[in-house]
Amino acid sequence: MRSFTKTVTDKQLAANQANGQKSHGPASSEGKAISSQNATRHGLCGRFKVLPGESQEKFDSLFEQFMKDERAVGSVETELVRRMAEYTWLRDRAARFQNACFYVAERTAEDIADGKADIHFSPELERFLRYQAHFDRSFARASAELLKRRKERELQESRFVSQKHAAAGQQRREMHEQRQQERHFFYTANAKLNLERKEMAAAAASAAPSRRLAA
Fold first, then answer.
1. What are the tens digits of pLDDT across the range 139-151?
2. Is the pLDDT score of 50 beyond 70?
3. Taking residues 26-37, what's their average pLDDT?
4. How far apart are CA 79 and CA 142, in angstroms?
5. Separation CA 151–CA 154 (nearest Å)
């Protein structure tokens, strides 16, 4: 493979640096408008957006699928999933630009006969490779943060369920103890009442002969 490069002498490099220090950017409104679009030529930096020629519907579908797969809860987890979808989209975009950096030069009859091809690539290839690696790392960080938050949320939910079960168990024990106390109270009261009835009956029985003798 051959790369398109341009040889720059030290004198030219110094002159370019001096000119760069003098430059204050485009002055006309037309120049500023053109300059403002430089960062969106490939859309791999700055604020994310679906570029013309890409499908907003496909990106929305990708985001919805991520939401279903990741089961995001709350605004923070939703934002992390959105970033993951964007990083995936940008990574694929960088890969497409990488493919566009290659082309095969027109082959001569001799090249065709020998089965040879002269493949060229643009110096932009290295930049798109860096972008792709950057988005892979960014996706991994967002995914790790989402996993961490999900585990914390599930742990909190598990603790809440455990506390709820413990509270319900405590309530059942207290109700059982209360019923036991109530049964003991009624048993004791009933036994006391039966004892009083027996004593009254015995007293009445012992008093009956005395009443007959008196009569």
1. 999 999 999 999 9
2. yes
3. 39
4. 9
5. 5
Please name which of 41, 199, 67, 212 lies closest in space to residue 59, comparing C-alpha atoms.
67
Phi, psi values for residue 119, rounded to 5°: -100, 130
Residue type at position 119: I
Dist. CA 107–CA 192, nearest whole Å: 117
Rounded to 5 degrees, φ, ψ at 80 are -65, -40
Report the alpha-carbon distance of residue 122 to residue 98 in Å, rounded.
9
> Tokens 């497409």 appear where?
96
Per-residue buried b or exposed e for 127-136, using 16+ beta carbons within 10 Å of the residue's own CB: bbeebbebbe
- For residue 80, the tally of other CB atoms under 10 A from its CB is 23
pTM given for the model: 0.52
**Token pair of 209 as six digits:** 């002969």
C-alpha span between 72 and 81 (Å, rounded): 7
Helix axes 74-100, 124-214, angle to 10 degrees: 160
